[in-house]
Write a structure and sequence with these properties.
The chain has 334 residues and is of the alpha/beta class. It has helices spanning 20-24, 31-38, 53-68, 92-100, 116-129, 153-156, 205-209, 219-240, 258-268, 279-282, 289-297, and strands at residues 4-12, 17-19, 42-44, 77-81, 106-110, 136-143, 161-170, 176-184, 192-194, 215-217, 250-253, 306-313, 317-324. It contains 11 helices and 13 strands. The strands form 4 sheets. A 5-stranded mixed β-sheet has the order 1-7-6-4-5, with helices on both faces. The longest helix is centred in the C-terminal third of the chain and has 22 residues, at 219-240. Bound molecules: oxa(dethia)-CoA. Oxa(dethia)-CoA is lined by residues 29, 33-34, 37-38, 114, 153-154, 157-158, 219-220, 222-223, 226, 256-257, 260, 284, 313-314.
Amino acid sequence: MTRAAITAIGGFLPDNIVTNFDLEKIIDTTDEWITTRTGIKQRHLENDPTKATSDMGVQAVLQLCKKRGISPEEIDLLICATVTPDLIFPATANLISSKLGAKNAWSFDLGAACSGFIYAVSTGAQFIETGRYKKVVIVGADMMSRIIDYTDRTTCVIFGDGAGAVLLEPSNDENGIQDFILHADGSGAQHLRMKAGGSLMPPSHDTINQRLHFVYQEGQAVFKHAVYNMAEVSANIMEKNKLTANDITWLVPHQANKRIIEATAARMGVGSEKVMMNIEKYGNTTAGTLPLLLWDYEKRLKPGDNLILSAFGGGFTWGAMYIKWAYDGSKSGK
Ligand code: UT7
């Protein structure tokens, strides 16, 4: 079987940085609370009202194309994982492709919230494995600041804006995507959702007055499910592939809360030195966290490294992916 491998990464963060101390000035919170409860110190938030999720995605893909030395016209398929599309329709992936001039690509969005990147890589990899396509781009992008209520201290401190993108190509050897396990449970919607704006409750003066177009999250309930399921699915993929903690080079966990990440690593028996983490700089960028982690740690990645990607998020959705890294990240320019 031809395996799909990640062969390039791009990333983008808006310039504007908002620290915990900045948030202290607008809501009843403290740097100490945010740091100890979540691990977050700052986040990037887009302050240009003319910019949207597709603009971040475009920058991430352009960087990836430059690093790999390819033109956007070579892309066969582009999938954008996001819960903050520019518009309800058309798909943000279409807008990204159009702005890039990726005129030979077809494209679509995938909505699996914080698990969106793992879902989308799993989906895109199928087209490489069957031999149908040679270049599939996966974008994980979310401009969370556009759906966050900055009067709600329980959610506004957590989220940030950002995008990452990876290129999938056929692998020349055994390296590449080895396995994935994916789950969904729609009953989780009661704990984490946007209440209005869809066909169930279209926008109205009433929905706006009631502030229903923002992220609604019951933090403790989500935390409980996240800790259990992210740890469990990560342990399951290890068992399924007969991997011990020693075999794992990196755990690449969704960046929602440092405590969830630590619980996952502990369940897997993986030491903190093997855990990728950048939550302190970016907060939770939803579908952006995993590609942005790979982007930040790219220089340290070597062929044959065993990576376990793991995520939990709105839906509920959760999953894990086992990747044997395919290229020498230290030789990739940024
Ligand atoms: O990525 C998508 C999936 N999402 C997640 O994985 C998020 C999972 N949930 C969490 O990470 C955590 O539940 C939060 C970070 C959202 C909240 O942390 P927590 O330890 O669960 O806090 P809590 O909701 O139990 O609240 C504890 C206290 C409350 O005060 P009282 O009732 O004990 O007096 C809150 O009102 O902390 C208060 N609180 C705050 N205090 C200062 C809540 N938010 C804040 C805040 N600053 N920003």
